Amino acid sequence: MAKPSSSGSRTRSFVQIFIVVGLCCFFYILGAWQRTGFGKGDLLQLEVTKKGAGCDIVPNLSFDSHHGGEVGKIDEVDSKPKVFKPCKARYIDYTPCHDQRRAMTFSRQNMIYRERHCPREEEKLHCLIPAPKGYVTPFPWPKSRDYVPYANAPYKSLTVEKAIQNWIQYEGNVFRFPGGGTQFPQGADKYIDQIASVIPIENGTVRTALDTGCGVASWGAYLWSRNVIAMSFAPRDSHEAQVQFALERGVPAVIGVLGTIKLPYPSGAFDMAHCSRCLIPWGSNDGIYLMEVDRVLRPGGYWVLSGPPIHWKANYKAWQRPKEDLEEEQRKIEDVAKLLCWEKKSEKNEIAVWQKTVDSETCRRRQEDSGVKFCESTDANDVWYKKMEACVTPNRKVHGDLKPFPQRLYAVPPKIASGSVPGVSAETYQDDNKRWKKHVNAYKKINKLLGSGRYRNIMDMNAGLGSFAAAIQSPKLWVMNVVPTIAEKHTLGAIYQRGLIGIYHDWCEAFSTYPRTYDLIHSNGLFSLYKDKCNIENILMEMDRILRPEGAVIFRDEVDILIKVKKIVGGMRWDTKLVDHEDGPLVPEKILIAVKQYWVADTNTTSTQ
């Protein structure tokens, strides 16, 4: 092979510099044009940004990736990309696996009809989900915690249903969230203060929390200032758009229910779990729901229950329920908690707190003496579409201490230190962190908006060890770390031990969220992983559904795969730029940057779906 000339190398380096400069300009201008919470573009900011970024230096720059002309050649061989039409306006809030019409065909017993029921292949939509007319980019955090543009989720039912509970108020062209809830009409902060008098929330010991039946997620929203990140879930039910409101506020949430299927989280994941009048029948079905909470709580974790039946003696008249029923309900909860070796730490007013034991060996002996049924599954993390059982998940002995946050973000997780993640050692974990710090630094040079606060809700579709999320960690953002169910290594437990959150998911199906709920999506090797597993087009259509207008996507994958991706999204109203790996054009792995164009529903659309 002939040695490349020095002039050729200099030319290639010069072109690479121009690519980076040009992309910086691209994203600076994009940032200026992106609509604020009031839906106005700032032309003055655009002009200043253009001059500050030096965009006039390379006005005619081509942003195509340069590596021997290979990308351009392959990209031009095939015909023009397929153009995807917009769906009809009635689909603006379509949730494929939580479709209301499909749900009503399933049994209501144990909330089965509120669980995931995905469309068959022939039922899937092959059109682009539109944004509602008037849609604007959400307010930046922390303003988004308290205000959501009405046009983004135009549903007023909760303002009427929950008027006296201070959930949500409609004011002009925005919804305001005063921070109230059914159990905390005086505000979430005061409510959390009561919990913090029992649970060490402030010192980093409690970092990850699970909020079951979260409403509009005010509990999670107000925990954020205390450096606690909550994974909230609620069903798509008569309380219309509650999870959508949570995500519009910038609070992590998914559509979900505690019914018959195990929660999509690893065992021992959460430092704290919470139910504030969440209407889950905790004492029913032989304690199966509390047993599932026990599975996802780490040893030493806390469970908080507020509302019925706690403090029933003083409230049974206000709740309009027979005191005998409430007394029996609490007795069942206490019995199951005792069976699980939970210690009751406090019961004051309408808030009760239990703590899961850390002494797994003594607990096991007590449970064996009581004739407890233990779960037979050899993998407590094998939960995807698996039925819950009325059995106790054995607690594994904890190897190593879990550091308080933020130290635990880069400390070696106990699951890795103990060898519980096959193929991942402390050394490979540290190497992974270094690699992703380098990758994220390269991303920030390409997209100056990353880390600026513009992207609040971020998803990593193939999270690995969570090192991408760790590298961009900031109070301005959060990352939903998705570990695909077909991933070679089940790393989600280690991700939680880093003080991050995430979920299991199979990308051959739709994600449990509303449309337009993520500002930025990161896809590392995802399409290589799913090659020949399911239709690449379906995955990209799902990404389009959950990405906000003017949201961004970062793909990192092999060049041949990215060329296919680039062609498909070319018909989806996305703008794309393919760039080389930060180590140069000879590395086969490339980066594809994409931005979803702003467009809204057209009531006169000719789409057939």
Radius of gyration equals: 25 Å
Strand content: 15-25%
- Could you tell me how far the N terminus lies from the C terminus, measured between alpha carbons in angstroms? 54 Å
Number of helices: 20
Major sheet = 7 strands, mixed
Please state the average pLDDT score.
Answer: 86
Counting helices, strands and paired strands, the structural category is alpha/beta
Helix coverage percent of residues? 25-40%
CATH class of the domain at 407-596: Alpha Beta
Per CATH, what is the topology of the domain at 407-596? Answer: Rossmann fold
As residue ranges, the low-confidence spans are: 1-77
Bulk shape: globular
Question: What does it look like?
Answer:
- It is a single chain.
- The chain is an alpha/beta fold.
- Among the domains are: 94-123, no CATH class; 191-370, Rossmann fold (3-Layer(aba) Sandwich), CATH 3.40.50.150; 407-596, Vaccinia Virus protein VP39 (Rossmann fold, 3-Layer(aba) Sandwich).
- It has 20 helices and 17 strands.
- A 7-stranded mixed beta sheet has the order 6-5-4-7-8-10-9, sandwiched between helices. A 7-stranded mixed beta sheet has the order 13-12-11-14-15-17-16. It has a 3-stranded antiparallel beta sheet with strand order 1-3-2.
- Strand 5 (229-234), helix 9 and strand 6 form a beta-alpha-beta unit.
- Helix 1 runs antiparallel to helix 2.
- The longest helix is centred in the first third of the chain and has 28 residues, at 6-33.
- It is globular.
- Residues 1-77 have low confidence and may be disordered.
- Its EC number is 2.1.1.-.
- Belongs to the methyltransferase superfamily.
- InterPro entries: Put_SAM_MeTrfase, SAM-dependent_MTases_sf.
- It comes from Medicago truncatula (Barrel medic).
- Pfam families: Methyltransf_29.
